[in-house]
Prior knowledge:
The chain has 3 domains: 1-195, no CATH class; 232-450, Beta Polymerase, domain 2, CATH 3.30.460; 453-576, Poly(a)-polymerase, middle domain (Orthogonal Bundle), CATH 1.10.1410. It is 32% helix and 12% strand. It contains 14 helices and 15 strands. It is globular. The N and C termini lie far apart (91 Å).
Amino acid sequence: xxxxxxxxxxxxxxxxxxxxxxxxxxxxxxxxxxxxxxxxxxxxxxxxxxxxxxxxxxxxxxxxxxxxxxxxxxxxxxxxxxxxxxxxxxxxxxxxxxxxxxxxxxxxxxxxxxxxxxxxxxxxxxxxxxxxxxxxxxxxxxxxxxxxxxxxxxxxxxxxxxxxxxxxxxxxxxxxxxxxxxxxxxxxxxxxxxxxxxxxxxxxxxxxxxxxxxxxxxxxxxxxxxxxxxxxxxxxxxxxxxxxxxxxxxxxxxxxxxxxxxxxxxxxxxxxxxxxxxxxxxxxxxxxxxxxxxxxxxxxxxxxxxxxxxxxxxxxxxxxxxxxxxxxxxxxxxxxxxxxxxxxxxxxxxxxxxxxxxxxxxxxxxxxxxxxxxxxxxxxxxxxxxxxxxxxxxxxxxxxxxxxxxxxxxxxxxxxxxxxxxxxxxxxxxxxxxxxxxxxxxxxxxxxxxxxxxxxxxxxxxxxxxxxxxxxxxxxxxxxxxxxxxxxxxxxxxxxxxxxxxxxxxxxxxxxxxxxxxxxxxxxxxxxxxxxxxxxxxxxxxxxxxxxxxxxxxxxxxxxxxxxxxxxxxxxxxxx
Length: 576
């Protein structure tokens, strides 16, 4: 109050009255009022009692106050203050405290805002603990620059806070108005949130290539499939040679033997399943002998191997019996001798050395510089219900339907002279070399040739799927890895085929195997195969109790899984 009793208005921090003089000691911070209902006198009393303590600023809050209409002082810009403050920034970590406070009634000349700001911008503080509390400001008699504009200029010299500021509360006070309304706190908050740092997005490493590489992977896979196609003339030449030798062997067995005179040809394997890749160099022909009066008993616990007993009555096979059991090794030995006799009239064909536990007689020849091998497999066709171990197998109900499953299970099954391990191992008086392994190769062929949940799948009038293409790629990948590392020799194409059959039962719809989604479907199949390898378990599709990965070492299984994963992550460089 002046001597005349006439009140004067307090000036804004960024204006200067010609008749007002204020000492630096009188510049003190004003705390926020606790509630908007308190009187101005109470707030003034609090300001005079509190110690001077600069407020810590975390984020610049923009607000605006309304100056009085009556004006006797001229405006003063804060641009010199900003320039001077910028010079005081010595390191990026220093944070200048912006004075946001009002002044007392001016009786003497006020100190310039540049000098007052210089005194309170010395020590940097942590800006992540306290919230900014702007105070109520009163205006001088002259028109003051708005606090919002003042705060914007102070903000320019504030370095970005290194820590997250989302938990800091921002409190604003209700400014005393003269003629206009103060800027709403909602707008202040919106302006502040624009300054918050963005939260880094989470990135996850995946086994499969990213979507942006999908087209590139598709191109590689389609090009690989194109290279794996068998040329028509090569297929024709190979088929002619194979058909000639197989027909000759069948005629020889029917005419010159008593035990094998009823043989029937059963063409199985990848060539006849339309799954052959690269070259027509491997063929499998099963020569089956139908039997009626036999007892089939399981050998071992996995349900894959069986001993066969002949029932009473005359049979040309009685000479192959050993302790009442039909010896697979003796029967295969005579079959092999008869095939050798037949092949002698074809000098271009040679019989390879017998392999341990192999149920086939392997012949090789060369056609158009391509070496072709033919496996002639002896088998017994059993016309009775399938073994009990198959009850939980062939789960194609949701894929091909229960009717199709019943049709398959009404078919006969086959036994081939094959064993694993040592042939002299005995179980219930039967040697392992005299046992037979069950085979469902004819059912596998039927499933793979009619593989769609819709009957028109892969037909001219229907949509194409990529089931067979995925299997071809997996077989090719496995062959290439075996060429680079001979320790993977225990793994074969039958592991890949079994993986596909299981995958088709889990992804049953044709839409899950669209031809346009080749890359995605193939990588899903690889994930299935990797999971089997890492677990060391791949159940036989027809006999779930048999683990097809029991023979390979577990370390080799995990090593193969690791190599396949590397190829998958790197975009299959082995195919390039």
